[in-house]
From TrEMBL:
It comes from the Bacteria. This is Lipoprotein YerB. Residues 55-194, 223-333 form the DUF3048 domain. Gene3D superfamilies: YerB-like (3.50.90.10). Residues 26-39 have a biased composition (Basic and acidic residues). Residues 26-46 are annotated as: Disordered. Keywords: Lipoprotein, Signal. InterPro entries: DUF3048_C, DUF3048_N, YerB-like_sf. Residues 1-21 form the signal peptide. It holds the Pfam family DUF3048. It comes from Heyndrickxia oleronia.
Amino acid sequence: MGKRRLIFMMIMLLTLLSACNHREQSKKEAAQAPERGEVSGDQQEELEPTFTFPLTGLGTENEPNNRSIAVMINNHPKARPQSGLSKADIIFEALAEGEITRFLAIFQSEKPDKIGPVRSARDYFIDLAKGYNSLYVAHGYSPEAYTMLENGYIDHINGMQYDGTLFERTSDRQAPHNSYITYDNILKGAELRDINMDFAPHPLEFATNDEIQQIYGEEINQIDITYSKSNVFNVKYEYNNEIKKLLRYSDDEQTIDEDSNEPVLIDNLIIVEMEHHIIDNEGRRDINVTSGGKAYIVQNGMYREIAWNNIEGEIIPYENGEPIKLLPGKTWINIVPSLSDVSFKNM
């Protein structure tokens, strides 16, 4: 065999072996690759959501262009457990009259089927709802709140005008602890009153993953807030280190949703000190929600004393003259007459 022919045959053999190896590697890669349209685990972690909800900072694939809805929710013992609380983006808790607290639950990212029991309006809760440009939902009103609503201060629907139509009474509880409304009926009420519901609230500022790692403070696993001499309206929060969220308790009973049994889970707890003044014989209050003042913030099982400011109607935590970014998730804001009503434990 000539030398030139031998070299040619060796080149052909090497080429054939290389092609076989390439085909085998391609088969392996094809077997390991996700099917068309699928995303591997590593790729999925890198994907950013298309949009984020303005009041939670959590991702969503659909643009969240719906208006927020702020509902007054009863916190009398006869109204517990409530419906819808676990789905609220932000909840304010403040004294209504006497030692009774009431909730203002703001919904935007989730739309619970049933919300309530719905209770009467107060002027400072109306101010807080307006800060998020929410549709305000209540059943009844104080004299001050009535004046604000009648003068068109905020878009609203009220059970005093729609009791038995948009608002429904349940038979298992006695009035005034049995008025409920569905999310669909809120939208029907908005349509009846020609209220625009097609715009999202101003987005809050949320921390990035790197910023979350820099959160600091004193470690705690329990927060107690005293609203009453008895324990009925006092609040306890417990930090669950496994899920990295706060659980809430009233009168030592965990706050859950009546219909789904879902617990209220909180990512940001802000406790703000505001001026309180009793204004009538019923024990109703005027609460100064505008001036700013002292506060605590609880995030990732740590707390520290900060300040709060009212920025265009929103209650924003501040530190060293700068707004504090929230953890993506749900926020609960407790309004207290004094920070001395708050205690922290690390057991």
